[in-house]
Specification:
The chain is mainly α. The protein contains 5 helices and 2 strands. Bound molecules: zinc ion (ZN). It comes from Nitzschia inconspicua.
Length: 130
């Protein structure tokens, strides 16, 4: 065994280790580029402050109220806040309102078809009075 084979062994071992680590230089570069991109995924259009990709709307809103208190149109900072209601951050109120409207509509439809309870009761009361 000459020196050359030892070098080969060492190289092979290094490659094996790198494979064990799971990432090549290229992958590492791509990962860090993605991390950098994610770290600055959202940007305030007014002051250009950047936010993580997973920032939540309330945090963006906090930035607006802290840094741009005069702003009334949130989308001037973050277009993604279009349609966001700070009083209804999860859209629960809007959902409940839509549900109530649907129920009202269903009740109305029920009333329109067939005799409704009120008129039946009315007729019954009139009969009873006779
Ligand atoms: Zn800002």
């Amino acid at each position: 065994m000459g020196k050359g084979s030892n070098v080969q062994k060492a190289t092979a071992a290094r490659e094996r280790n790198q494979k064990k680590m799971g990432k090549s230089d290229e992958e590492r570069k791509a990962a860090s580029a993605k991390a950098a991109k994610d770290a600055a995924a959202k940007k305030c259009l007014l002051c250009l402050q950047t936010f993580m990709v997973n920032v939540k709307a309330p945090q963006l809103l906090l930035h607006i109220t802290a840094k741009h208190p005069d702003l009334t149109d949130y989308t001037q900072c973050f277009p993604e806040l279009a349609g966001y209601d700070p009083n209804d951050p999860k859209g629960e109120k809007a959902e409940a309102a839509a549900k109530a409207a649907a129920q009202k509509k269903a009740a109305k439809a029920k009333k329109a078809g067939g005799p409704d309870l009120d008129s039946l009761l009315d007729a019954g009361l009139k009969k009873g009075k006779k």
